[in-house]
Amino acid sequence: MTEPTQLFVCHGCGATVDIARNLPFACPNAGRKGDDTDHVLIPAGDEKSFAAGSEPNPFLRYRNLLSPYRLARSAGLSDNAWAEFVGTMDRALLAVDGRGFRTTPMIPQPALAKALALTGELWVKNETGNVAGSHKGRHLMGVMLYLRVIEAAKLPAASGLKARRLAIASCGNAALAAAVIARAADWPLDVFIPRDANLNVVKRLKELNATIIVCERQPGESGDPCIREFRRVVERGAISFGVQGTENGLAIEGGRTLAFEMAEAFHAAGTAPAALFVQVGGGALASALSQGFAIAAAHGALPHRPRLMTVQTAGCAPLARAWQLLAGIELTEAVHHRSRFMQPWATTPVSLAQGILDDETYDWWEIAKGMRETGGAPLVIDEGAIMRAHAMAHAHTKIAVSATGTAGLAGLLAAAPLHEPVAVVFSGAEI
Ligand SMILES: Cc1ncc(COP(=O)(O)O)c(C=O)c1O
Fold first, then answer.
1. Residue 89 placed within a domain
2. Which of 29, 233, 334, 427 is the most exposed place for a label (fewest CB within 10 A)?
């Protein structure tokens, strides 16, 4: 039998990681002194077609498009073995969170479109009913399934794995998703949160038995203190279970299932959105959507990719700043000079859309690539638009979505009127 393998490639330095041998989380060349390359590991792109199954669970439906599945098969595990990993997690998720992963609804919302003066259809993908109440679990379920595969196939990457704790830096939906999935997998999790974390989130994290570590912002320090502490424990052996692309390239891949579901639904409806307005914090969501739509379009599941319109608040807009600095510069050049384009936001970010206040857009480069390839752009929205979009979503749909989750709609509000079909993702139930 040939050696099992699946490759990830760093988009900055070109390093390849064989995920049978090493965890495809941070690039092995990241963090070297004096290095200014942007390192993120990306699956090598072995999708032969847009081969979707008929199962409602996205981790079964799109298994051919997921590198942990392809790794499982190359390691001699059967299709049934994969179904068993997914099924076992599904039963455990039902017990822990009352729901497992299923294709989430996406329909046109005519009343909301009318309120925004849009003459084309407005499609809303509703992720508020997903595991832990947001899309974040998609990122982390991909990682958990990978961990299951390498353990079961006894691959070199699994060496010492079970003795290591999972770790994440987040104060919101990502932390909730990590805690639900870790609990379902019966794997201990450390969550690094800021002092001002949402009390309801903290309560739920405790119910889920996550260990909480509160991280303080030091005077004069730039960057997120939770990420700083998270990196410290990962260096000491914790398993990176976060959703920043720089810290876990594999997490982005699971998020692509969101775009795959949307592409299939558009195809079935005989339409394709001209633009996608998406809220951006650390950047994993927009990066995953951009990559997922690119795969769907490359394999004919959609006639074209939507324009990637990214949305940040005026209180924290590092991506928009990077975009301005990128004017006239090739991305292949920019990838070697990260700090020229992406620096932590200098002031403590504040907004009603709390979930997108990441100090840095960690996955900025993939998003910039997606915006350039599709003719998209970043939008910076004031608090008034954030509030109006949230109120309009509640007035004109039945979706109990958070202000973070309607920040993409706030971007659309600023861009309206538009006369073409457009899409947004409502994610993050009101907590
Ligand atoms: C509901 C919701 N939407 C969007 C985002 C942004 O995702 P990302 O940090 O991957 O850019 C978040 C992040 O926490 C979120 O909670």
1. no
2. 29
Residue 402 lies in a domain: yes
**Owning domain of residue 402:** 106-130+249-426
Q: Verify cis geometry, omega within 30 degrees of 0, for the bond prior to 417.
A: yes
Q: What CATH number corresponds to the domain at position 330? A: 3.40.50.1100
Residue 422, beta-bridge partner list = 122, 275
**How close is the Cα of 55 to the center of ligand 1, in Å?**
26
Distance separating alpha carbons of residues 294 and 43, to the nearest angstrom? 13
**Residue 135 placed within a domain:** no
Cα three-residue angle 380-171-112, rounded to 5 degrees: 45
The residues lining ligand 1, judged by C-beta closer than 6 Å to any ligand atom, are 134, 172-174, 243, 279-286, 355-356, 358, 404-405, 427-428
Whether residue 67 is contained in a domain is answered as no
How many C-beta atoms lie closer than 10 Å to residue 271's C-beta? 17
- Other C-beta atoms lying within 10 Å of the C-beta of residue 124: 23
What is the Å distance from ligand 1's center to 252 Cα?
12
pLDDT per residue as tens digits for the range 256-280: 999 999 999 999 999 999 999 999 9
**Which atom of ligand 1 is nearest the CA belonging to 170?**
14
- Total number of domains in the chain: 1
Distance from residue 165's CA to the centre of ligand 1 (Å): 24
For 270-321, write each residue's pLDDT tens digit: 999 999 999 999 999 999 999 999 999 999 999 999 999 999 999 999 999 9
DSSP symbols for 282-312? SSHHHHHHHHHHHHHHHTTSSSSPPEEEEEE
State pTM to two decimals: 0.98
